[in-house]
Amino acid sequence: MPYRGFIQEAAGPAQRQLSLGLCALVLLSVLVVVPRAAMPLPQLPHISGMYGAATAMIDLATFWLLISAPRPHRSHIVIAAAYLFASLMAILHVLTFPGAVFADGPVLGSPHAVSWLFIGWRAGFAMLIAWAALVEPPDAQASPTRPSSFPLVVAVLAVLALAISSQLTDAASVTIVQGRSLFSHVTVVGSYVSAAAASMAILVIWVRGLFRRSIFTWLVFVLVAESAGVWLSTFSGQRYSLAWYMTRLEGLVANTVLLALLAMHFRSVQKRLTDAFLALERRTDELQAQVHKREAAETQLARAQKLDVVGRLGASLAHDLNNILQVLTGRLAIIQRRAGPAVESDVQVMRRSVRKAEALTRQLTLLSGRRRNQPQAIQAGVVLGEMEEVLHSLVGRRCKLKVSAEEGLPTVALDPLELEIAVTNLVTNACDASSGVDGAIHVRAFSASAADGGPALAIEVVDEGEGIKPEILEKVFEPFFTTKTRGNGTGLGLAQVHGFVTASGGTVNVRSEVGRGTAVTMVFPTTAAVGGARQTAVPTPRAVEGRVLLLVEDNPDVRESSVQLLSAEGLAVRAVDSADQALTLLEGGFAPDYLVSDIVMPGRMDGAELVRRVRDRFPAIKAVLVTGYSDVAERARDEGYPVLRKPYDLTSLMAALS
Questions:
Q1: Is it the case that residue 537 has pLDDT exceeding 70?
Q2: Distance CA 242, CA 232 (A)
Q3: Quick check: bond before 647 cis, omega within 30?
Q4: pLDDT given for residue 491 in this prediction
Q5: How far apart are CA 128 and CA 320, in angstroms?
Q6: 421 in Cβ contact with 496 (< 8 Å)
């Protein structure tokens, strides 16, 4: 709810009842004192000085609180002007009252001026309150009038006018009779006029319905107390009577009540502001957290989008490179058949290079995030031995590398290329974390126990680097998380390790101590080798000799080398360059024993769709899909179709055809 100012605050039933109760109490006290109003008491003129000084301080404090309120409007300013006027008049009252400060007379002016100023003080305050009630809209929801400094100017000018006029008259305010200060006719009439002014202000407040506002509720009490006090004091007929002293006491109480009300109001405002500030601060913190979270999400999304683009490019390059490697693989087989043992060593070197190139294309497909393991039974010691030269060239002179494997390690079913990538990632991270050329890295394979207690193979990479802080140890496998400097890491290395090990049915553990180094251990259950190692009987040339094979391949170099290689095995090969041509041949009566088709081809139909139609319409034909890289290959494999990854050799193709 917006803040509309102190003037608009509604007075609750309890406030109104309390105000009316205090008014009744004041009037009741007046009735009680009336019979004894003229009772003379000791003449203490300094009491008037104390009363004036206290009233001035209270009224100035009230004025300051009122004028300091946020967005005050005209009626608010008029009430503030009334208290400014009252505080200045209280000061004049102290300065002009005989004996208030100096024992032998007033500080300034005629000793008769004090009654004139007292009458003006009381009447002027009541008239200013009536003015405020007249300019305040009865409807709290109405737009308030605009504030102006005019009421403050009027209050100051009124004080000056009363101060000057009090010195222009020499009418006696009191007469001394038998040592008692009796009020003159001028004082009595003026006091009644000021009481009437207070009554008029109360009437205006009541008629305009402002008694329901908190400040006007308590102003009614102030006016009742002052008008009753002025009347009672005048009724007593003299200074230093019981009524005279009681009037000053009631005035102090009345003014203090309004000051206390304002103090409580501003304390409430301060509390609301504090609560609003704390709520805003909390909301700001939440908003900043959301902004940081959104920025992090946007950064990760942008990185993922970039990675997706790079992944698509990598997959496309992998497809084209694997087709080239397939041509090389086929031609190497043809050269080996033609030249015999004389070129065997050269062919083996070239085949190793082809395998390394294939591993590079596999790393390109890692970026696409859609690669699937192709496990086969392997000996970890043999695989690590083949990798040792590559790993040494990877770390160079930066780190000291040692590769070892226990004797008699069990066979496990793993994707050898994925294993090579995982070990390469771990060694790269270990070397980056090691301190200078003295950093030592140990890659070892040993027997271990799986999570279920069964036998397992463990491959561990240990470094003596800077270690990983405990607070980030749990995040190391998160994609894109990296502690390397910008441009030196993608945050995908350990994510690939975790994905590969998990997909292979194993677990990966990280042990690290800051300043001492890190050990990453991949544990693979050996039971996976039983189901993962495919024991397939490769058909002999006699088994396929004379059989008919339909080859569907759009790449002319791959198609030509494949035809030569398959024909050398005794197969009768018919080659076409599209799935549509192959389906036309089959529907025309051509009945091959085997169908080997690439997946990605131009035209309306790809190889996977061709094989589906062949299975439905020609179930006797054995079909195999081959691909350099394709998302469709994974779906086709899920459907039960045999899929070979390029580059493949003749042995792998014959095994798939079986």
A1: no
A2: 10
A3: yes
A4: 56
A5: 96
A6: yes
Q: Which DSSP helix (H) or strand (E) runs through 413? A: strand 412-414
Residues 6+ apart with CB under 8 A from 492: 366, 367, 479, 480
- Phi and psi torsions of 440, nearest 5°: -105, 135
- Report how far residue 234's alpha carbon sits from residue 147's, in angstroms, rounded to the nearest whole number: 38
- Which residue type is seen at 155? A
491-497 own/partner pairs: CB under 8 Å, 24+ apart: 492/366, 492/367, 493/425, 493/426, 493/428, 493/429, 494/425, 494/426, 494/429, 494/520, 496/366, 496/421, 496/422, 496/425, 497/422, 497/425, 497/426, 497/522
Write phi, then psi, for 148 (nearest 5 degrees): -150, 150
Residue 470 DSSP label: G
pLDDT in tens, 77-134: 898 899 999 899 888 888 888 777 887 777 877 777 787 888 888 899 999 999 988 9
Structure token digits, residue 19:
């105000």
With CA atoms as reference, report the closest residue to 442 among 531, 553, 524, 518. 518
Distances, alpha carbon 203 to alpha carbons 3, 194, 195, 212, 216, in Å: 28, 14, 12, 14, 12
Distances (CA, A) of 13 to 5, 10, 206, 212, 261: 20, 10, 15, 9, 16
pLDDT tens digits, one per residue of 168-227: 766 656 666 666 667 777 788 888 888 889 999 999 999 988 888 888 888 888 888 888
pLDDT bucket at 372, cuts 50 / 70 / 90: low
User: The tokens 């553990």 sit on which residue?
Assistant: 509
528 contacts 505 by C-beta, under 8 angstroms:
yes
Q: Which two tokens stand for residue 164?
A: 């000057």
Distance of alpha carbon 231 from alpha carbon 385, whole angstroms: 116
What are the residues whose beta carbons fall under 8 Å from the beta carbon of 204, sequence distance 6 or more? 130, 133, 134
Q: What is the pLDDT of residue 541?
A: 44
> What's the pLDDT tens digit per position in 406-461?
888 888 888 887 888 888 888 888 887 776 546 788 899 998 888 777 888 899 99
pTM comes to 0.47
Nearest residue to 374 (alpha-carbon basis) of 419, 318, 323: 419
